[in-house]
């Protein structure tokens, strides 16, 4: 996102980055924090694990987070890789959008739970979406989305390998090539969707008005379909990758 903004692809500014981990809790998180600071972006952290070891009320954590970031006035907050459930007060204070690894109307839960449900249900399509964060978990108004097939081409042979999915254990499903392939295709679209969504916000193609998602004319919409834009981005990345390999 920092690069997309720097190259003029997204009209936005990153006001701050917040994490519910602190330095020393995770190697990958520490490297991410170093990256944030290398870009001179304000970094705000509050260890959820340490905080909850001293407090009984989960809502106290959200109130403390809101105090820490009160010096900023973000127009839009993006939850990406933020695994905590956001409380009601924070939902009401900020316009927040969350990345969810399913298409609109698809399964809720973690990405593992989503893929389990897709395979058990024998679905032909899935996707990735961004939705407005509300007190109702994973059910806020859809902001934007991309869909893709999980049948046809290389997928058909993987479905044959797994056989009767409804009879398989969760462990067997997670160990399958189909499970890994669905996850790979989803991950491939997550970052492009975040960038394309913020580009659309910056250009006024998507707006949030009174808890609703609207288009440029303020007309309420059931999510903005960015599938074509995302697939073009992925195809271009594949071409550039192929050229760099030569």
Can you characterise this structure?
The protein is of the alpha/beta class and 246 residues long. It has a domain at 98-245. 45% of the residues lie in helices and 15% in strands. It is built from ten helices and nine strands. The protein has helices at 2-6, 27-38, 48-52, 58-68, 88-93, 111-121, 153-162, 170-174, 177-202, 227-245, and strands at residues 17-19, 43-45, 77-79, 96-100, 125-132, 142-149, 207-209, 212-214, 224-225. A five-stranded mixed β-sheet has the order 3-4-5-6-9. A two-stranded parallel ribbon has the order 1-2. Strands 7-8 form a two-stranded antiparallel sheet. A hairpin with a 2-residue loop joins strand 7 and strand 8. Helix 9 packs across helix 10 (227-245). The longest helix is centred in the C-terminal third of the chain and has 26 residues, at 177-202. The two termini are 28 Å apart. The mean pLDDT is 92.
Index terms:
246 residues; alpha/beta; five-stranded mixed beta sheet; 10 helices; globular
Outline the secondary-structure elements:
Blueprint: H1 2-6, E1 17-19, H2 27-38, E2 43-45, H3 48-52, H4 58-68, E3 77-79, H5 88-93, E4 96-100, H6 111-121, E5 125-132, E6 142-149, H7 153-162, H8 170-174, H9 177-202, E7 207-209, E8 212-214, E9 224-225, H10 227-245
Parallel strand pairs: 1-2, 3-4, 6-9
Antiparallel strand pairs: 4-5, 5-6, 7-8
């Amino acid at each position: 996102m920092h690069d997309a903004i720097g190259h003029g692809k997204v009209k936005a500014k990153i006001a701050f980055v917040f994490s519910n981990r602190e330095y020393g809790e995770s190697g990958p998180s520490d490297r991410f924090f170093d990256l944030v600071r290398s870009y001179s972006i304000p970094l705000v952290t509050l260890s959820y694990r340490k905080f909850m070891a001293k407090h009984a009320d989960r809502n106290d954590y959200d109130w403390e987070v809101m105090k820490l970031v009160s010096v900023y006035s973000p127009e839009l907050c993006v939850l990406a890789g933020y695994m905590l459930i956001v409380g009601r007060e924070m939902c009401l204070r900020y316009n927040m959008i969350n990345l969810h690894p399913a298409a609109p109307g698809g399964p809720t839960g973690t990405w593992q739970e989503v893929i389990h449900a897709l395979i058990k249900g024998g679905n032909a399509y899935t996707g990735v979406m961004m939705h407005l964060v509300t007190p109702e978990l994973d059910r806020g108004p859809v902001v934007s989305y991309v869909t893709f097939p999980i049948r046809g081409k290389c997928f058909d042979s993987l479905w044959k390998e797994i056989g009767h999915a409804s009879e398989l254990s969760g462990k067997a499903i997670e160990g399958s090539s189909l499970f890994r392939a669905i996850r790979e295709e989803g991950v491939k679209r997550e970052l492009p969707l975040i960038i394309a969504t913020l580009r659309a916000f910056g250009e006024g193609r998507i707006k949030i008005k009174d808890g609703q998602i609207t288009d440029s004319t303020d007309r309420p919409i059931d999510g903005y379909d960015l599938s074509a834009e995302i697939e073009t981005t992925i195809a271009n990345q594949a071409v550039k990758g192929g050229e760099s390999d030569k």
